[in-house]
Amino acid sequence: MDTYKFFYEVIILQQGKDLYNGKSPKNGKGASNMSTMMFPQKFRWGVSESGFQFEMGDEYRRFIDTNTDWWHWVRDPHNISSRLVSGDLPEDGINYFELFGKDHELARELGLNTYRLGIEWSRIFPHPTWFIEVDFEKDSLGFVKSVRIDEDTLRALDRYACRKAVQMYREILLDLRKRGFKVIVNLVHFTLPYWIHDPIRAKSSELSEGPLGLLEESFPIEMAKYAAYVAWKFGDLVDMWSTFNEPVVPIELGYLGTYTGFPPGVNKPQAVPKALVNTAIAHALAYDMIKKFDNVKADPDSNSPAEVGLIYNIIPAYSPEGTKSEKAVEHYSYFHNELLLEAVKNGRLDVALDGKNILKPAALGGKLDWLGVNYYTRIVVKESSRRFNGHPVLDFEAVAGYGYACVPFGLSKIGRACDGMGWEFYPEGLIDALRIGSTYASKLLVTENGTSDPRDVIRPSYLVNHLYALLLAIEEGINVEGYLHWALTDNYEWAHGFRQRFGLFEVDLITKSRIPRHSSRIYKHIIQQGFIPSEYKKDIVEFRGI
Length: 546
Hints:
Blueprint: H1 3-15, E1 44-48, H2 69-73, H3 77-81, H4 96-109, E2 114-118, H5 121-124, E3 135-138, E4 144-148, H6 151-160, H7 163-178, E5 182-188, H8 199-204, H9 219-234, E6 240-245, H10 249-255, H11 272-293, E7 307-313, E8 317-318, H12 326-346, E9 349-350, E10 358-359, E11 370-374, E12 379-383, E13 396-398, H13 429-438, E14 444-448, H14 459-475, E15 480-485, E16 505-507, E17 514-516, H15 518-529
Parallel strand pairs: 1-2, 1-15, 2-5, 5-6, 6-7, 7-11, 8-12, 11-14, 14-15
Antiparallel strand pairs: 3-4, 9-10, 12-13, 16-17
Helix pairs in contact: 4-7, 6-9, 9-11, 13-14, 14-15
């Protein structure tokens, strides 16, 4: 028997010692009642993907994108030799650009009705758009308030855009719509054009030389141009838009968590406020531009031609068992989960990271039609007042053995299985994540949820438990309209390269063939039934503290 599989079957069985088996868990819901809890009739079932992680990999290297910051970052000799990145290269990837029709058909065969797609800014505009000048207005605080973009601007942008990339994305969108998918398009998923972010130069100069990406003064305006153009080109095919995926992650990992392999990898907490401000303003300007230039309703059931949101990885924070770290929990949740959402939704921006000096830029507020919640696991934090001196709300650090801070393929401190990323199996945290999200948007979707598990031992239980948690959230009254799994296929996982496997379908990187994992059949079965069949009740673990 496969040693890996045997070991993890033992883990799953062990963490299932307290399975409900008809008993009432702490929230009063028994697994025996699971099949009576129905997903909403018009529930959106889908998968999510990004551009950089999926697009490249064809045999003849026709679809390589050398114009993104991550392209240069993952092949930098120093980054590779220091093991900051894997050494795997995205051009050896899963080849979505050539095989998108095959992937869409696999998704349709699972019974999915929604597909989240990432568009690469660097493909649309491989060269700078700085030279296309636009008028803009600043508010009394000195922040950009509005940008004036009209049809003449769009035609000028069209002359700079890559026609081949525009046509490719249009073909992909048309194929999805032909197959009956609701399409969600996300504009920025970590990667930025190389002309707006040179991560190697930024790192070597300690952020004194650029271009500096999120720290560039022109970043919000360039983002507005990009959003306006994409809405103009694809608005007839898309009604649901997201400006950024997980916008706080590149800020946290790029300027605070330099060990993670995210560019530019410079430990400079003082850069964080500027990056947050630019991201919030960029979202607001992009929101306005998408609303202005997408005037066509693509789907009959859409509320408007353009519903614009954010995709956000909400990570519920907890204290270590037996300790009191309420301040650390509060500050982590404030910084990671709330600060940026508070800005775009309620117009309140904490530029000092102290929870006190709140500014109200004119561009912000009311710029969130829907919220995508990405959830993988929790975080457990303790106080660490000296970690980032001068930034009062950054007085926390993660506790090893929980959440994201576990040993790959090991056990967490509460005996839960951990996946290949070292992420703890903690499905009950999804309910808390959705509770947080519901304070900022009345319309939620789970836009990413998955686990790195090449042998598909953890994923079946992971999938069932998180869908059960989702049902509990819906019963609680939280308006969750869909669930999108990460991911349909294996992908290029940033600094980890191809070592992490998140797909419902395994991808052979030589032949590019898609091989279904057992969890794909479980997902399909649940979608077909509209509830979690009772045969899966053995997989439901007892939720802690819910």
